[in-house]
Amino acid sequence: MAICVAIIGKDNSPKYFACSNPDDEINLQYKVLSSLDVIEEKLNTANKVTDFRELFLGTLYSLESHKIYGYVTNTKIKFIIVVDSTNTALRDNEIRSMFRKIHSIYADNICNPFHIPGEPITSKSFHDKATSIMFGTV
Amino acid sequence: MRSSVSYILSSSTTEPNMSHPDYEQYSHDHAALLILIRHIGSQLKPKTYNKFYDRISKLSTVKITDSSGQVRNIYVRYVKEYPVENNDWGDFQTHRRLLGLISIGKYDSQLELNEICRVHESLKVKYTSTLYDSRCILLKPNEVQSPGETSADESNKSSPDSDVIKDDDSSPYDSSSGDNLKSSSSTDDRSSVEKSAEDARKEKVEKLLEKLREEKTPDSKFTTPSNFKSRALFYAETEACDDLEQQLTEYVNSLFWVLESKRLEKSREKLERVSLLLAPFEKKDFVGLDMESRNNKKRCTGRVTKHLGDLCLQAGLLPESLTYYSNAAEILKSVNDWLWLGAAYEGLCAASALILYPNIQRTLPLHRNASLQEGSPKRTSISTTTNPDLTNPKKDVLNILTPEDIPKRYREAIIHYSKYQNAGIIETEASFKAARISVDQNYSLQAASFLQNVVFINITLSEQEKTQRFEMLSDLYTQIGFARKAAFCHRLAASRYVSAQNPTPNWSQCYNLMLQSFPGHKLSLDPTEMCTSPHQMGWPSLQIHLLTELVVAAKRMGHSALATRHQTFMLQTMWDHLTPTDQKELAIQLQSLSAQCEGAPVPLVLDNGVVIPPANLSNIPVCSGFTLKNLQPHLQPRKIQMAKQDIGPFLFTPINFGSLERKSNKPQSKMDFLWVENDLCEVTLKLVNPLPFELKVSNMRLLTAGVVFESIPETVILPSETPTSLTLNGTPKESGELELLGYSTHTLGVKSNCRLRFMKNFLPHYSIEVIPSLPVMEVKTSLPQSATFSTFQNFENVVTSASISLYNGESTECIITLTNTSQVAIEMLEVSIQSILEPNLQEQIFSWDAEEIQKQLPIVPNSSATINVRLYSAANFLASGFSGPELSSGVFGSSHAGSISLSMSAGPSSLPSRLNSPISHQSTMGGSFHSRRNDLNSSFRSSNSGQSSMTTQGCRSPGVLALPQHAASSVVEGQLQFRYSGGTGLLAGYCRSCSVFITLEMMPSLQVTNWDVLPAETSSQFYLVLDIANLTSQEMELHYTSSKHMLIEGHESCRIPVPVDRCPLSKLTKLYMENGIDERLDLDKICSDHIANLVDLRWQLSAIDTNGKATLKGITLTPNMLDIVRMSPLNWDVSINGDAVKPQEALSCEAGDCLEVSVKIGNSLEKALRHLSMSVQFYQDHQNGVCNYRLENRLATTGLSRVLVPTLEPQTSAEHNCNVLFFTPGQYKMDIQVAAPECVSATASISGHVWRFIPPVEINVSL
Amino acid sequence: MADETVFDFLHSELVNYVIEQSELKNKDAKDEDLSNLEYLGFSTGYRMIERLTKEMPRFKDELDTMKFICTDFWTAIYRKQIDNLRTNHQGVYVLQDNGFRFLNNISNGKQYLELAPRYVTFTCGVVRGGLANLGINSLVTAEVQSMPSCKFHIQVQRS
């Protein structure tokens, strides 16, 4: 399971943030925020290097405690998953599929008429789905 | 990138390993000669020392021509201190050896000099293992002046301040560095010309240095102690020390040559029998190992080769070093000597980098506050700056790495290092170097990954070093534009400074680093920026967290002002992102913080020069409305020119209300009303306290610009969440344009200037015109205030009111007192009345003496003037035709237009008596006579009515008289308008206008219900018969002539005859002269005026002793009345049997007598009357309204009963005679009339008019 | 296919509804106000693109994106691809659909030509919205010369 899922908007402002341990939220937010630099850098290089065209960006960076993965949609929405570095069960493929799931629920949420694009995501059902993805229960 | 097989080979025992990482290292430093510059002694000021250090470190490369004439580029690196342990790694990487030592010291006495020398020597001992040569810069006392230092003198003169080096680092340095180049080149020349062996060269250098020393030392009266073996450079502190660079160059030269010699002998050694070079911690790994084994031999050679590579690199032989390194790499790889393989790779990278990017410069130690700006933009990669034609030739250098390979090799090196626990420092440093290279190559991601790696290397470091590491990381992250990452590291570093483990927590450091992490989190210290930025992309939750930490840091730092400031900032900027509870708590915290140090809206400057802009609490309380108030209407200044409109009731509305409306829909910053200097002006605010508890806001003032404005502080206590409106007052002290920028508050212990500019949905400012000061006037009246105000137009500038009730015709005086309550004299005062009455009536009711007022001007401050206003209850005492029409309509409905118009006009004189008369002839006579009859009966009416009404007088019931609409009292309202001004305001053309509201209740006193006229005994007079009704409840005493008076009970009425002189022809003549259009009315008017003037009815209510006079103004008269009222144009002369007939007297005769009637008419007009027909007619009046004209059988007349007078010239007369003979006795009447023909006459005035001899002659015929 | 007809009906109702509304709002306006319709399209496109690009690899560049619009995007909505894409490489793209779905059912010929704008506005919005969400701010106009073919001009706003 992952310990944190974050969705960051085009303007790098947080749109959704969920983590397994609420006490840890602030620290995780700091980490996630600082990982945005890498994402942006990767996106810049992505334009030059053609083989960089997958939405999944792989590991952004890893700390002694956490590994941080990134995924950026074509619409420049950034998904970030933080996993515990000790957790070796999660290989890139698992992460990738988690991102896929998140992307699809995100797309659904965008099509939800009550969601205004660009606003933080408050939908309860979205939250439930997202957390269950995070906990790997789906 | 850590190797999976960690810590193989590495022994866990704690070896003396390099414990002092040097994060500053660049890969280029591999090629540099390491020189320590030490500060010695307490005399030398650190500043001076730093100046020296900076100046020295400018000399980072020296070109030296070697024996083979090849120019070597020697790099030098200066450090301020160098842990001796690090020297131990000198074998591993030679650039870690400390080769040189320059100590700087200042002395005033021999003692100090000795001390300095001693320390210097001891230092030499400390580093003896590696030290090649040393210098000691000695700053001698200033007063000592030597001939050799004239330059210094000049520079002294040039700059009065004592220390040149301290002051102007730029100019002398540039020049000196210029010298430096020259000097170095000169040395080159010198060296190049004479191609001798190096030792010869050494001597040369020695000599040179000797020489230099010679010229330095002798002048000094102090001498270095004998045991002082080093080269000393003597300078005066004030000196420009021009030759410093030269000296340094020489010094570097000497170092180089030593190094070069070392290199040569190393290279001459037979690789087979060299001893194994060891990294410090390896010592015991190889104890007892068979050095002769093939493997170890290779290891030795490999390591030595690598070592040689290092030396070559330092000696400026890049290609050679490259070959050595690559060979070494080969060998070492074969023997799995990872550590040294790594070193070899690193060497390769360093050398290649040096070739590819020769001009990478160590970024000068950046100042903390400088890094506060947004993360410094990425460096333009060196590779791009070095133009290809430079790089291409370098390509062909043997086994040089391509730019892409450099990071790869570094990566490998790092991986190899990572296998050794004790090589942690080396690994860390390598990572930093690699990162720096990638930064310059602009491979941000690579740099990032290298930096990332640093975090993993776990080495036992002091907190200090850990923090340094993070700071270095953040600096590098900033360089590659990873602002957020940099911020992240800054925060970590900050937390390190105060972490629990840290023995010496340093909050101010922590605080500074926190601040530096702000840009990364999109936090700006200026609240206005935060608010104004349309969508701040920062993460509120983090920002809040960060700010909270910052506040804590500031507090622990003991800088409570800062704490308050930041807390305020947080409340102000993060408000929307805070939960209500947080809002509450933060607010309370702020209160407690500000208790220690009150927040003020001034920028705070930190020691490191960072400026913390003020933070204003503009959303506690929230201001939802800011409205400038116009002055009180009676104080509003008005333009004197627009006086006319000023009193017009409708002018003010657009100004007063219009402005408000306009603000509501289309906001405009310029007010369209005026404020007055020295007058209290108001601005109303709508405030809401968003906090759940009661909020006290004190010292609220207006922030203004422009003219001087004295604002009065207000204090308000705002309940939670309920909009409160507050009025801020102030007085402008000058005239001119005033700008209102906002307001200041003091709440939660924080002073704030809330500027509208920075607040949502407000205009940046409001501006208003202030005009010079005007006087203020207080108005009092002698009369009681009126209870009610009517909705009379523009009553808003009414200051007081007066009310009184008067009986019609009564009059009184109202004394109005004007007091000047201002400091400005009232020099101009205009009084005017306005009401809805028509002007002439208005001035009847209200009147005053204008001159009297002007006499009292000017009204100096605190003095007063009085105005007497006379109030007269002017009413129409005449019952307007209320009964006429409805009574007679039934009658005239059937009769002819002519008669209707007649009786209409005669409305008022509708006495019951005359009612029957018309009916009668309607019945009795045929239409043929009509016109005549009409005239007839109308003619009678006048007289008849008179008598008949007389008779019926007694039987008139008051009930009939009680006329509701007239009994009701009417109310007249007027405004007495004062427009006054004075002082500068008057010059500016402004005035004020206030008004007194006067309510005048007019109670009915008496009324003339009916009136009629009767001929008097004398033809010069007539009787005006009035039915007077006393409408009051008191007994009224009525004086209607000088002599006559009568009492009328309350609500009673009576009839009085008032003798009035007839309206003389003189008043009328013009009527007859030219024919006006409606002379009929003129006639009316003249006559009624005539009456009004002559008749004065004075009444008196003795009970409540009031008196007044009634006027008959506007009394209307019927034509027939007119005939009586005015003098007839014809004067009659009627005689019977020769003797003239007197009016009102009956003459008698006997039946059968023949009476001779002679009628003479004289024209008393100034013009001729034409076609007059005179007729004499007899009839009998039955006293019941019925007249009998059919008298054929009762009398006979001889002579014409009707004659025509063609013309009657003025002042001439015509006579007509006839005889009459009565057959039967009885009472007869003779009616004599002269008729002017219809429309024959030129003047319409008398056309169709009939004059009668009134009264008709009565003849009693008896037997 | 039922679902498609449903879409057609929905669209035509949408058009009618918006026209009605705008007429109710301002009768005196001579040319009908289609901005609402365009906006409806915009938000539709903006949301829809999220779904459509889910499986897509990252777009190389603008042109790549445009190709996507012409093919997958168009097919997703109109069951057909754009017939012709032209560009001047300065940010102007012309997408030509020879049988534009919403015009197909209108009798070709000049008869209803002046009504054509109603039936292309929504699509303009959709395209603009899609591009906007993909980070390309553009100005999309349509041009109908002869039913049922339609040209969409995309003008990228370089900021």
TrEMBL record, chain A:
Give the keywords, sorted.
Answer: ER-Golgi transport, Transport
Tell me which Gene3D superfamilies the record gives: 3.30.450.70
Q: Which domain of life is it from?
A: Eukaryota
Membrane spanning stretches: none
A Pfam match: Sedlin_N
Q: Does the keyword Transport apply?
A: yes
* Family annotation (SUPFAM superfamilies): SNARE-like
The subcellular location is: Cytoplasm, Perinuclear region
Q: Which family does it belong to?
A: Belongs to the TRAPP small subunits family. Sedlin subfamily.
Q: What is this protein called?
A: Trafficking protein particle complex subunit 2-like protein
Organism of this sequence? Nicrophorus vespilloides (Boreal carrion beetle)
Automatic annotation (TrEMBL), chain B:
**Positions of region (Disordered):** 143-202, 911-955
Q: Identify the Pfam families for this entry.
A: Ig_TRAPPC9-Trs120_1st, Ig_TRAPPC9-Trs120_2nd, Ig_TRAPPC9-Trs120_4th, TPR_TRAPPC9-Trs120, TRAPPC9-Trs120
Q: Which UniProt keywords apply?
A: Golgi apparatus
Compositionally biased, Basic and acidic residues: which spans?
Answer: 187-202
Q: Say yes or no: keyword Oxidoreductase present.
A: no
| Bias kind Polar residues: ranges | 911-926
Boundaries of every Trs120/TRAPPC9 fourth Ig-like domain copy: 1131-1261
Q: Which residues form the Trs120/TRAPPC9 TPR region domain?
A: 472-595
Q: Locate the Trs120/TRAPPC9 N-terminal domain: which residues?
A: 90-365
Localization: Golgi apparatus
Extent of Low complexity compositional bias: 172-186, 936-949
User: Domain Trs120/TRAPPC9 first Ig-like spans what residues?
Assistant: 635-743
Q: Which PANTHER family match?
A: TRAFFICKING PROTEIN PARTICLE COMPLEX SUBUNIT 9 (PTHR21512:SF5)
* Family in the record: Belongs to the NIBP family.
This protein is called what? Protein brunelleschi
Which species is the source of this protein? Nicrophorus vespilloides (Boreal carrion beetle)
TrEMBL record, chain C:
* Highest taxon of the lineage: Eukaryota
- Which CDD domains does the entry mention? TRAPPC6A_Trs33 (cd14944)
Location within or outside the cell: Golgi apparatus, cis-Golgi network
Gene3D superfamilies found in the cross-reference section = Trafficking protein particle complex subunit 3 (3.30.1380.20)
Cited Pfam families? TRAPP
Q: Which PANTHER family does the entry link to?
A: GEO08327P1, TRAFFICKING PROTEIN PARTICLE COMPLEX SUBUNIT 6B
The family line of this record is:
Belongs to the TRAPP small subunits family. BET3 subfamily.
What this protein is called in its record is: Trafficking protein particle complex subunit 6B
Originating organism: Nicrophorus vespilloides
